[in-house]
DNA sequence: AAGCCTGTTGATCATCTGATCAATAAAAGA
DNA sequence: TCTTTTATTGATCAGATGATCAACAGGCTT
């Protein structure tokens, strides 16, 4: 019967340890929020002394900013990859709306919302937020522009429309964070709204292709 | 030349002191966020000892929740009063969109966003958030239903549409908190989107009545 | 004028935080 | 094997925070 876990953590290569710390911070952020990232909480999860976490980062603000970037970049890449499979822009946009409203990524939404607030006191995080928002907007703008090129959408300002759609999605997801009930057909309503903005045919973005309600 | 301000704060009626504390908390929240509300920061602004603030509230969480409710309820009432002047539902809805996107209330938006996050660890605040969201939704639903009754809007689910519009507004405002540039014609895009959702005539919600872009 | 009521104080406690750094020990190189 | 390098420790510091409460004093009643 071995006593409590070894007093001292096994010595590891810096890159490996850094990865462990990043992963622990990621899990903490998704489970308990970015604010739950502290030297001690991360260290405890990794199983090392708090000083070691500090050793791998210039300061906690940087760790929080990096963790945010990691989480959000993964989400962006994941969704972008999903879209890439579909050939037609309307399908891509419809899938994008559907995917982002399906509630499967509420933990990521919580991280977004928290980052907007914490960015006020963490400049590194604020910078990260701007970068990641730009990345999301670029994904959306690509789809809108592809739709225009294919003659399926019509709007004079794809960039602005992309920002607008992004804002709407963020807002609806943030709302879902607090209130689930009372809202029906979120996807259908949003699809209809977006159809209006991108100048798509009525019903072309509604899941299944046929308008309801 | 009088020395530094009086050592002891003047004795006041509980209701008056409570009002001072509430007002100080309100200002702090708008200027530096709900997280800036602490026993000591509020006490310093009022000019009393920290213990006195604690004396007037069961705990800080309650003060934060009350402050949030005060700020947001005032906003809701203010906007609702503005709308009441206009007779036609489309005008009312157009003014509502215009007003909420004009950037004059970004400090309130910041409080909203922060409340969504803090509500995770402050149950009283979370309850307050739900109440205030319901209040906002009710204002919107009223306008939508009035529009339906007047034959200007057409949608089968005014409640859901109201939630949807609210979510969109929140998202766009939260976005504006972080990113101002790059987005043109926010009001026009949103108006167009909302027209689609409530089934209003094209251009009927765009400021000035004539569609652009 | 005396005395009571209560608004007010501020020191105190327990916790938490980020940051620092001398000491330690394990691995790598000689 | 001996030496050097460096990953790791954990105690320590300064600074916040919420909460508590005995002591104080201003104003009111009698």
From TrEMBL, chains A, B:
Q: What protein am I looking at?
A: TetR family transcriptional regulator
Q: Which residues cross the membrane?
A: none
Which PANTHER family has this protein been placed in? HTH-TYPE TRANSCRIPTIONAL REGULATOR RUTR, HTH-TYPE TRANSCRIPTIONAL REPRESSOR BDCR
Q: Which GO terms describe its molecular function?
A: DNA-binding transcription factor activity; transcription cis-regulatory region binding
InterPro entries per the record? Answer: BetI_C (IPR039538), Homeodomain-like_sf (IPR009057), HTH-type_TetR-like_transc_reg (IPR050109), HTH_TetR (IPR001647), Tet_transcr_reg_TetR-rel_C_sf (IPR036271)
User: Pfam families under this entry?
Assistant: TetR_C_6, TetR_N
The upper taxonomy is: Bacteria, Bacillati, Actinomycetota, Actinomycetes, Micrococcales
Report the residue ranges that make up the HTH tetR-type domain in this protein: 15-75
**Protein keywords:** DNA-binding, Repressor, Transcription, Transcription regulation
Q: Which residues bind DNA?
A: 38-57
């Amino acid at each position: 019967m071995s006593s409590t876990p070894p007093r001292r953590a096994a010595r590891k290569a810096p890159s490996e340890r850094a990865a462990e710390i990043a992963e622990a911070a990621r899990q903490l952020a998704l489970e308990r929020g970015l604010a739950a990232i502290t030297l001690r909480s991360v260290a405890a999860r990794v199983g090392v002394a708090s000083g070691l976490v500090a050793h791998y980062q210039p300061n906690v603000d940087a760790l929080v900013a990096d963790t945010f970037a990691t989480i959000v970049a993964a989400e962006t890449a994941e969704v972008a990859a999903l879209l890439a499979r579909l050939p037609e822009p309307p399908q891509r946009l419809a899938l994008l709306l559907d995917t982002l409203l399906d509630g499967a990524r509420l933990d990521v939404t919580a991280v977004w919302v928290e980052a907007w607030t914490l960015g006020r006191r963490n400049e590194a995080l604020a910078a990260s937020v701007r970068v990641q928002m730009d990345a999301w907007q670029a994904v959306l703008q690509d789809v809108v522009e592809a739709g225009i090129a294919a003659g399926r959408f019509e709007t004079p300002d794809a960039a602005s429309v992309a920002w607008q759609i992004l804002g709407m999605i963020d807002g609806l997801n943030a709302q879902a964070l607090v209130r689930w009930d009372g809202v029906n057909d979120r996807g259908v309503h949003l699809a209809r709204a977006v159809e209006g903005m991108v100048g798509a045919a009525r019903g072309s973005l509604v899941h299944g292709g046929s308008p309801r309600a």
